[in-house]
Amino acid sequence: MNVHAAPKQTKVTPALPSAKPETIGLSPVRLQRMHDAFQREIDKGTTPGVVTMVARRGQIGWFEALGTQNPAESAPMARDSIFRIFSMTKPLVSIGIMMLAEDGELLLNDPLAKFIPEFANQRVGVERNGQLEYALPIRPITIQDLLRHTSGIAYEITGNGMVQRMYAKSKVRSRDITNEEHAKLIASMPLMCQPGSEWNYSRSTDILGRVIEVISGKTLEAFLKERILVPLQMNETGFHTAKENKPRLAEPFSTDPWTGDKVQLFDQTEVPKMQSGGGGLVSTAMDYARFCQMLLNGGVLDGNRVIGHKTLKFMASPHVAPGVKLETHLVPPGHNFGLGFAVRTDEGLAPYAGSVGQFFWSGVAGTFFWIDPQEEMFAIFLSQGPGQREYFRTLIRSLVYAAVE
User: 3-state DSSP call for residue 37?
Assistant: First the structure.
């Protein structure tokens, strides 16, 4: 027997403990109703397939794959199918930045230009009579602004303002530019508002990915691996997956079942130059579950502390001040935004059940997770259907909370 062969088997992600639902306060009858609800959606042709997971009190009580993994093939969806998680990348990168803050490498009120000097010259774009005028920033963008999306940086996908149209015409969406080139490109375009004045979902977390590279002297992927992915044994999370994993890739319908629009997502096996801190990772349910369990545990998993529990509590608290404009479906009524996550602030107001203090985020292709410290619970929902993401995010919350005893 070759004793040196064992370490090569690093790809299997260790499973979290599991339990019968009723032993951890989850109703098997109501979880079955969740199964039925998603089966109906699959039968209706809303989505090719889904993976759902609910864990409570440190154990997984529900973990199911339903439907088809890829509508062009007959392989069933599997619990280890690989998904593009898009903006569910943001919480990992936000944790990475806060680890550097804990190391004393940065302060949250540090100006962004301290790390990427090009941002020192940025102007604010002001739309007047169909023209874009330029104003000086009243104050610099801080690291905290980037974490909570109050930087004034834009996203070309969230609106049609003049600055957003500039983004859309530029190369910001290219996977063939480096994080450094991407950051310089963003710095060369105006801000959409004064830093700190509005909440705008944005490429801020991509810029944080570049800040990590500048401070650490490593690529974003190397940093995430060393500080988060390897300690948590998230062995299948990265900016691409190996070509031999092709039979495990979850894929969307080629046309949206509701609108008929073409759906085109990036090739998960392609190695990109741009390691997008805002949306570049691919992962599996069990990999992301290990990240979620660490968050639920207050920053530690299997004796490996990733982040301090006070730092994490600080991140999962409201950071958008009352006077700051916050009008978006992404942060619904009864919610605020923290450092990398949306945070529930009210028992009511939102169009779905939940607990005060829960925090969450989602991905544009149809992935979603939330952490509920009050119920000692996390849930993960994975699908690849951009057009159905809002509907499923609301549906999964209703179904899971109905099952909590």
Answer: helix
| Domain shared by 272 and 397, yes or no | yes
DSSP letter at 15 equals P
Task: Determine the Cα–Cα distance for residues 161 and 313; give it in Å rounded to an integer.
Answer: 35
Alpha carbons 283 and 233: distance in angstroms, whole number: 12
Q: CB-based contacts of 220: which residues, under 8 Å, 6+ apart?
A: 93, 179, 209, 210, 212, 213, 275, 277
- Residue 211's SS3 state is helix
Q: Which domain holds residue 127?
A: 106-216
Q: Tell me what pLDDT residue 340 has.
A: 98
Q: Quick one: tokens of 181?
A: 């080139």
Run of H or E including 132: strand 131-135
Q: CA 142, CA 119: separation in Å to the nearest integer?
A: 11
Q: Among 216, 245, 267, which residue terminates a domain?
A: 216
Separation of alpha carbons 25 and 273, rounded Å = 45
Q: 361: which strand partners?
A: 369
Distance, C-alpha 168 to centroid of its chain = 22
Give the per-residue pLDDT at 43. 98
Query: From CA 95, how far away is CA 181, in angstroms rounded?
Result: 23
Residue ending a domain, among 158, 184, 216, is: 216
The amino acid sitting at 164 is: Q
The pairs formed by 113-117 with CB atoms below 8 angstroms and a separation of 24 or more are: 113/140, 113/141, 115/210, 115/211, 115/214, 115/215, 116/183, 116/184, 116/187, 116/207, 116/210, 116/211, 116/214
- Rounded Cα gap, residues 317 and 324, in angstroms: 16
| Residue 327: predicted pLDDT | 86
Same domain, 234 and 197: no
Mean pLDDT by 10 residues, the chain (405 residues): 43 95 98 98 98 98 98 96 98 98 98 98 95 97 98 95 96 97 98 97 98 98 98 98 97 97 97 98 98 98 98 98 92 97 97 97 98 98 97 97 98
The one-letter code for the residue type at 8 is K
Residues 6+ apart with CB under 8 A from 258: 46, 387, 388
